[in-house]
Specification:
The structure holds three protein chains of three kinds.
Chain A: H1 2-5, E1 13-24, E2 27-33, E3 45-51, E4 57-63, E5 73-78, H2 86-92, E6 98-105, E7 119-124, H3 128-140, E8 147-153, H4 162-170, E9 174-180, H5 197-203, E10 212-218, H6 219-231, E11 239-244
Parallel strand pairs in A: 7-8, 7-10, 8-9, 10-11
Antiparallel strand pairs in A: 1-2, 1-6, 2-5, 3-4, 3-6
Chain B: E1 26-27, E2 48-53, E3 59-62, H1 63-68, E4 72-79, E5 84-95, H2 96-100, E6 109-114, E7 119-123, E8 133-138, E9 141-142, E10 152-154, E11 167-173
Parallel strand pairs in B: 1-5, 2-11
Antiparallel strand pairs in B: 2-3, 4-5, 5-8, 6-7, 6-11, 8-9, 8-10
Chain C: E1 4-5, H1 10-17, E2 25-28, E3 34-36, E4 41-43, E5 49-52, E6 59-66, E7 69-73, E8 77-81
Antiparallel strand pairs in C: 1-4, 2-3, 2-8, 4-5, 5-6, 6-7
The chains are: A alpha/beta, B mainly beta, C mainly beta.
Chain lengths: 249, 201, 85
């Protein structure tokens, strides 16, 4: 449709909620069918806008969880206790409802094969969402770019896309490592602490390999990871960051 | 209007007597943190509050001398331009009447200035007559830095952007000068009961 | 309250400039440091939005949406260059 193709306008559109999928106790994926969607790049996000009957509006940004090849638009939302929008999306929204959104938005925190690698992804909490889009894209195009993910979560039950990541980890193409920061099960084979310089050094490629790095999560996580990598000698210009915050609620 | 999101109500709303709610506002029990910059951290030993500008003699207080002044505990409603109102908030602080006592001036305007460079302007008469305080406690606890501590200006009869966080003083002026948000199009005065959010309202 | 980054205002910047701007580069008028707009320190949740230089902390941009129109003040930006396409 021409309206969607007008340069310089990011238009709002009403997408139908097709399905809701519980990912963890506090996160839910929302499968959407937007009427005018021209595709997206892995790592981009959408803006979602809610309007109450009295006209009150709230707007938030959510990373796209699906890959461009998936053929459907999926968002994964984490419930924040003092959130205003996330409780609605996670607890109230139903299949058949309509959700106003606009996008895709963003051009910095995106990965596609032409950008090369090796690809190092560092995710904290719900920061995994855009990284998962990148990994799904990487898989869908059969990319030979070496890829590695370090995913930090509080506990095993908080790991989003656990089964999918386990399957990817079992394949040769992607190296996936987990760290649990608050509690871990007996016999846990992954890391057991918040990321630090030592952990980063073990997981990251050497700076001489010039990895392309994407870091996403709460501000504290992102800053620790980014400054840790720079301290190890990685080029700041090859590190891309996306900070989530309480405003993502 | 944009399409309605079925079942969406927004932040937890509180019930309140409509006569206490200015037009266009919603009442909440939350205390959202609104910030336009990093939280400044000035050590109390280095902190001071100064009244300067169109005065014969600037007046200045250290943290110790300000908190030694007679203080009041007040319960007021606060109204944010982002449409949230919070009723019956309890603050402790020194009245501007106390601070301005003995300050000789013919100035009619004041610009409050804060750590970090924030400013906001008001008529001097909106700071006097029991309408404004330098508040250093909220709910009987020391004011947290994210809410403007160690001390903020408290002027509840105007939209809350006028209650400058991290306040360090007042510049008294013969002529009015729009402060930070006012110079970007927010209303110069900001009366919530007249819904004066933006210039021209 | 922790700052976010320029990714959080990608939509707002699009509203103002009519184009994707997070990959654009700005030079700080105060300290000269250059970086992508995506890397600015952004403070939301105020009467407006403020984007500060990550190196020196001075304000580079202020964005305000009033009566449906978003305006930007590039007060702290010396040079603004879109990314080469």
């Amino acid at each position: 449709m021409e309206r969607a193709a007008v340069l310089g306008r990011l238009n709002w559109q009403l997408a139908t909620v097709v399905e809701l999928v519980d990912e963890t106790m506090r996160t839910k994926s929302i499968v959407l069918d937007p009427p005018e969607w021209a595709g997206h790049r892995a790592g981009q996000h959408v803006d979602v806008r809610l309007t109450a009957e009295d006209g009150y509006q709230a707007q938030r940004s959510y990373s796209i969880a699906s890959a461009p090849q998936d053929g459907r638009l999926v968002l994964t939302v984490e419930l924040l206790d003092d959130g205003e929008v996330s409780p609605y999306l996670v607890d109230e929204l139903r299949a058949g409802d309509q959700l106003e959104l606009r996008g895709p938005i963003g051009g910095y925190f995106v990965w596609e094969e032409s950008l090369g690698g090796p690809l190092l992804l560092l995710g904290g909490g719900s920061g995994i969402v855009p990284l998962r889009s990148m990994l799904r894209h990487h898989n869908a195009i059969g990319s030979n770019v070496p890829a590695r993910l370090l995913y930090s979560s509080r506990a095993l039950d908080d790991v989003i896309y656990r089964d999918e990541l386990a399957r990817l980890a079992a394949s040769d193409e992607v190296d996936i490592r987990f760290t649990l920061t608050r509690e871990s099960p007996e016999g846990w084979g992954g890391y057991r602490r918040r990321i630090d310089r030592e952990l980063l050094e073990e997981v990251a490629w050497p700076p001489s390999d010039r990895p392309l790095v994407y870091i996403c999560g709460p501000t504290g996580f992102v800053e620790t990871a980014a400054s840790g990598l720079v301290a190890l000698g990685h080029e700041p210009g090859r590190i891309r960051t996306e900070r989530f915050g309480p405003t993502g609620g | 209007m944009a399409p309605i999101s079925r079942g969406f109500r927004g932040r937890r709303r509180a019930e309140a007597d409509p006569a206490r709610i200015p037009p266009g506002q919603y009442v909440t029990h939350d205390f959202p943190v609104l910030s336009a910059g990093p939280t400044p951290h000035t050590a109390l030993e280095a902190w001071s509050f100064t009244i300067r500008g169109a005065v014969d003699q600037p007046a200045s207080w250290t943290w110790a001398s300000l908190t030694a002044l007679p203080s009041e505990k007040v319960t007021v409603d606060i109204h944010c331009v982002t449409k949230w109102s919070k009723l019956d908030t309890v603050w402790t602080g020194v009245s501007l009447d106390t601070l301005l006592e003995g300050v000789e001036t013919s100035a009619e305007y004041a610009t409050a200035f804060s750590d970090g460079g924030y400013t906001t302007n008001l008529p001097l008469e909106d700071l006097t007559g029991g309408k404004a305080w330098i508040a250093y406690a909220y709910d009987e606890e020391p004011l947290e830095s994210e809410h403007g501590g160690p001390a903020r200006l408290l002027v509840p009869h105007l939209y809350f952007w006028k209650s400058a966080k991290w306040v360090r003083g007042l510049e008294l002026r013969e002529e009015d000068e729009p402060g930070f948000w006012e110079s970007y199009g927010y209303h110069n005065y900001g009366d919530p009961w007249k819904e004066q959010r933006y210039w021209g309202d | 309250m922790d700052a976010l980054d320029g990714n959080a205002i990608a939509g707002l910047l699009f509203d103002v400039f009519g184009a994707e701007m997070t990959t654009a580069t700005s030079a700080c008028a105060s300290c000269g440091a250059a970086g992508r707009l995506a890397e600015l320190q952004v403070y939301l949740r105020a009467p407006g939005t403020v984007a500060c230089c990550r190196t020196c902390g001075s304000i580079q941009m202020v964005l305000v949406t009033i009566r449906g129109i978003t305006c930007v003040d590039l007060r702290g930006v010396d040079v603004l260059e879109p990314a080469a396409s």
